[in-house]
Predict the structure.
Amino acid sequence: MTQSQPELSPYDTGARCEPKLWQPNSKAVAKVMRSGEAEDIGNVDFTNDEGSTVVTVHVSRSDDGLYTVHLIPACDDDQIRVEFHGEKSPVMIEPGTGRPA
């Protein structure tokens, strides 16, 4: 009888970065609020297969009602590409340019 090999996830293979919540539960959120660091709430680190943070991301709502996605790279800016998948055609922002390709 042979043992089946465990299936590797995209996180295991390095195909996707793994999300790591800064505050994994409501108790942790409350603690951050009491500490005066509320701007950190909702941050998510995405780590590579070596466990290093690649980028920190959070989404906020502006006074005009629009949502803003904030990307804080933990690597060189030229190692980050942003793809926006909306209902219209996708938009890609190439590394180091800050504007759509």
Summary: Strands lie at 18-21, 44-47, 53-61, 67-73, 82-84, 91-93.
